[in-house]
Fold Glycosyltransferase.
Amino acid sequence: MGSQDNTASKLHVVLIPSAGMGHLNPFSRLAATLADHCKVTMVSNVPAVSSAESHHLADMFSAYPQIESLQFEMPPYDSSDNPDTDPFVLRWEMISRSAPDILNYVMKSSSVPVTAVVVDIPIAASLVPLAKSLGIPCYIMYISTAAMLSFLSYFPTYCDSKTTADLSDVEIPGYRTVPLASIPGVLHDPKNLFTKQFIQNGRVVLKADGIFVNTFESFEEDSLAALRDGRVQPGFPPVIAVGPLMPLNMPASGASEVFPWLDKQPENSVVYVNFGNRTGMSREQVRELGLGLETSGCRFLWVVKTKALDSQDVEDLSEILEEGYLERVKDRGIVMKGWVDQDKVLRHKAIGGFLSHSGSNSVIEAAMHGVRMLAWPMGGDQRICAVPVVKSGLGIWPKSWSWQGEDKIVSGKEIGEKVKEMMTDEALLAKAHLVGEEARRAAAPGGTSYQGLVEFVQKLKDQV
Ligand code: UDP
Ligand code: UDP
């Protein structure tokens, strides 16, 4: 994007992420990329919800001193109105309620005037109108896929036109039908806090000056076209595909013992199993998954998670897994709890497949490294994100597997068979490598995603 010229030194972009590693990771990557071209400030809301977030923020601001850190102390929040709400969704609500204070604080603390703000989708409904009322261009960073952005943007229209309280398949005319079975379960409850936020954020998308999406052209050509040509909503703001955003250049976070082990494994032989930073699995399902990995005959690196919040995930592996399991698999698998540096794992030559919940970041990271996926969506946007996985040829998705709290256990036998199917499918491996090449080409100088950011920076320069 060229070195910073005089105009660039007057540009100041302020990023306001919400909470959850799935949000902080892409925001940090965007901050680091933009910091090569203009002044960048990133707001963090403290204290962070999870320990993974606290560690990440500390590591990032120390490795990237060029990104200015602005810490906003969250006021206490009475959650008695929403007692069972996910802690991350509650935090999104707290940030939304504090939006005027956050923006005031940003404006007061900035020595260089703010040229544009980039806000996270869960907090967009409060921040976009406020920033616009102050005359500041406001962009949204959409951390999920273009397919999910289409669904989010059309959902309010669907809700306004439906005649019964129940949800059904959502047909987005001229684009695609999102089947009822793929809709985030929580949206069935109109009173749920997430549902209210989702509808408000879906409406506000149209008011943003532009929307960054962590995807790339060839991965989601159809969804990007439908958004841009007004089929999803007429008058849609510019959609700028910026993915895959490049991982930060800093020392690996989390468990380090996995890497010497991976170094000793043959190329493409290990299946990496991780369901993201906020999906806990029942003990019974964990045990079946363990059996599946064992019977697949493959080597594996498995990060076990039984609780959504890392600070509550304290049970010992020996209490969770069947007696004798760890001993039986010790020669060909690592089973661990905690955090691994997923980027470093996925880029390792030994990794030949990824059993994943198909969280949006995991999908784009697998695409970037050309790693085959076995998608097991568990909830939220994950089924919608599994569509481009299959469509692009990056992976497979057994659609009958359990989904968002269904009282159904997928058997170890079935899991073992699918893991083996993925790991022995040479055509899938070749196709995934091709997807990886396309992804890296999009992000490299001259590529479509790189160019999207160049044009964004140029547009800001033209405005100052
Ligand atoms: N992640 C990681 N190590 C872990 C678990 C997760 O580095 O042990 C990262 C992963 O690379 C991704 C993010 O955390 O960037 C999780 O986001 P995703 O959208 O995949 O899933 P979520 O956790 O939001 O459900
Ligand atoms: N999301 C959205 N609109 C909102 C809030 C969230 O489109 O108002 C997206 C969010 O970015 C994520 C998906 O919906 O991609 C599902 O969110 P989930 O609760 O699974 O958590 P996340 O993956 O964001 O951590």
Q: What stands out?
A: The two ends are 18 Å apart (CA to CA).
